[in-house]
Specification:
This protein is mostly beta strands. It has a single domain, classed as Neuraminidase, CATH 2.120.10.30. The chain is 2% helix and 37% strand. The strands form seven sheets. It has a five-stranded antiparallel sheet with strand order 1-21-18-17-16, with no helix packed on it. Strands 3, 4, 5, 6 and 7 form a five-stranded antiparallel sheet that branches. A four-stranded antiparallel sheet has the order 2-28-27-26, with no helix packed on it. The longest helix has 4 residues. The radius of gyration is 19 Å and the shape is globular. The N terminus is likely disordered.
C-alpha cells in the first residue's frame, strides 16, 4: 500500500485527469483498520455517562455488514467539483448538491436538473483549493419560510454565513442576508459545514485559519471564532442571537479543532460527529453525545489525534473516537450515521478519506469504539450526505454522486 510521505493539509486537493469509474469497488481491504479508541477523556469533561442510553442497538463488531454484498452506485455525474449533498427534508425527495465554484444543483426524480437552484459565483472567492461555496443547510421550517443557509468564502477570502430564500426549484440570489463574516488570515482551513441541530440552533464548522501548525493558536483561544464549532440562534435577534447556554458568552460551542471537514448530527439520537483534518500524520473522528454541554475541547493544536503536537494530553481534552495515519490517506471526510431501509447498517457511522477513497464504519460497542475498513472506492471523496429516508450518499471530486445500495 502506498504511503503518503508528503505533507497534505487540504480537504480538497487539486487533481487532473482523474477518471470516474462507473461503480467503485465494494470490498473489504486486507489491511489493518484505523485505530479505534475508547472515549478518551480526562477531567473536567463533558458528561458522557448517558452515552449508551443515547445509542441505538448496534451490531457486534463481528457483524459489520459484509461489504462484498453492497456497492456505491453512481446516480449523477458531470458535476463541477461537488463538495456537499443535502436534503431539504420537505417531503420532495430532492437532493441539493453544492458545486465548489458557487452553484447549487437539484437532483430530482432520478435526474440532475439543468437549471441551478442557486448561482452565486459572482461573489464566491475560489482562488485557492480550499475556498469556494462549502456548506448548505435548510431551515427546519423550510416548507413554510423557504430559508436556507450557506457558508462560502467571499471578498478577501473571508468566510460568509448567509441566508437565502427559495421557492420551488429556484432560489433568489438577490435575497442574501449576511449573518456573519469571519476574517480568514490564510486561504486554507476554512471548514465550511452548516448544520441544524435538534435544538433548532445553527451549527457552523470553522477551521483554525490556515497555514500550518495553527500559528495564531486559534484552536485553543475561545475568544476566536476559528478552530471551532459555532452555535447561533437564527430565529431571534438581528441577524441572529447567541444562545444563553453557549459556554463562553459568544458564538463558540466547542473548540480545539484544526479543520472540521464535515460535521453531522445523528438524526435518531442527536449525537454530534466531526471529521477533523490532521496536520502531518493523523486524521480523526470526534464525537459528542447528545445532551453534552458546550465547551468541549478537542485538543488542537496541543494534540493531533491522540498524539502530542504542541504539548501532551492533559485534563480537559476530549480525544477522538477514531483516528488513522497517513498510511491510509491524507484528509478525512466526515460522514453520517446510516438511518435508512437496510437494517444491517442501522446506527453505523460511515466516513472516508479524500485521497485514498477508503470508507470506514464506526460504532460504539460495549463501551468501546470499533472501526472497520469497508470499501475501497477509487475516487476522491469530498462529502457524505443523507436523504429524507436516511440513505447515505457521497460526492467525488471528479463530479459524481453515489448512493450506498445492495448489489
Amino acid at each position: 500500500m502506498k504511503r503518503f510521505i508528503f505533507l497534505l493539509t487540504l480537504p480538497l486537493l487539486a487533481c487532473g485527469g482523474l477518471a470516474e469509474p462507473v461503480s467503485p469497488t465494494a470490498k473489504p481491504l486486507a489491511a489493518r483498520p484505523p485505530t479505534a479508541v475508547p472515549t478518551h477523556q480526562t477531567d473536567p469533561q463533558p458528561d458522557t455517562s448517558t452515552t449508551p442510553a443515547t445509542q441505538p442497538v448496534l451490531p457486534p463488531v463481528s457483524e459489520f455488514p459484509n461489504s462484498n454484498n453492497y456497492e456505491w452506485r453512481l446516480i449523477a455525474s458531470g458535476l463541477n467539483r461537488p463538495v456537499d449533498v443535502q436534503s431539504a427534508m420537505d417531503g420532495s425527495g430532492r437532493l441539493f448538491i453544492i458545486e465548489k465554484y458557487g452553484v447549487i444543483r437539484v437532483y430530482e426524480n432520478g435526474q440532475l436538473l439543468e437549471q441551478p437552484f442557486l448561482n452565486i459565483d459572482d461573489r464566491v472567492n475560489d482562488d485557492s483549493n480550499e475556498m469556494g461555496l462549502l456548506g448548505l443547510a435548510f431551515h427546519p421550517d423550510y416548507e413554510q419560510n423557504g430559508f436556507f443557509y450557506v457558508n462560502y468564502t467571499g471578498t478577501g477570502g473571508n468566510t460568509f454565513i448567509s441566508r437565502f430564500q427559495a421557492s420551488g426549484n429556484v432560489a433568489d440570489a438577490g435575497s442574501e442576508s449576511i449573518l456573519l463574516k469571519i476574517n480568514q488570515p490564510y486561504p486554507n482551513h476554512n471548514g465550511g459545514a452548516v448544520v441544524f441541530g435538534r435544538d433548532g440552533y445553527l451549527y457552523l464548522g470553522l477551521g483554525d485559519g490556515g497555514a500550518g501548525g495553527d500559528p495564531h493558536k486559534n484552536g485553543q483561544d475561545t475568544a476566536s471564532l476559528l478552530g471551532k464549532i459555532l452555535r447561533i440562534d437564527v430565529n431571534s435577534g438581528d441577524p441572529y442571537s447567541i444562545p444563553s447556554d453557549n459556554p463562553f458568552g459568544n458564538e463558540v460551542w466547542v473548540y480545539g479543532l484544526r479543520n472540521p471537514w464535515r460535521i453531522s448530527f445523528d438524526r435518531a439520537t442527536g449525537d454530534l460527529w466531526i471529521g477533523d483534518v490532521g496536520q502531518g500524520n493523523w486524521e480523526e473522528i470526534d464525537y459528542l453525545p447528545a445532551g453534552s454541554p458546550g465547551g468541549a475541547n478537542f485538543g488542537w493544536s496541543i494534540m493531533e489525534g491522540n498524539h502530542g503536537f504542541d504539548g501532551q494530553a492533559r485534563p480537559g481534552l476530549l480525544l477522538p473516537a477514531a483516528e488513522y495515519s497517513h498510511d491510509f490517506g491524507c484528509s478525512v471526510t466526515g460522514g453520517v450515521v446510516y438511518r435508512g431501509a437496510m437494517p444491517e447498517w442501522n446506527g453505523i457511522y460511515l466516513y472516508g478519506d479524500y485521497c485514498s477513497g477508503y470508507v470506514w464504519g464506526l460504532i460504539l460497542s460495549e463501551g468501546q469504539w470499533q472501526s472497520q475498513l469497508l470499501f475501497e472506492t477509487n475516487v476522491r471523496i469530498t462529502s457524505f450526505g443523507q436523504d429524507e429516508s436516511g440513505e447515505i450518499y457521497f460526492a467525488s471530486d471528479a463530479g459524481g454522486v453515489y448512493v450506498l445500495t445492495k448489489k
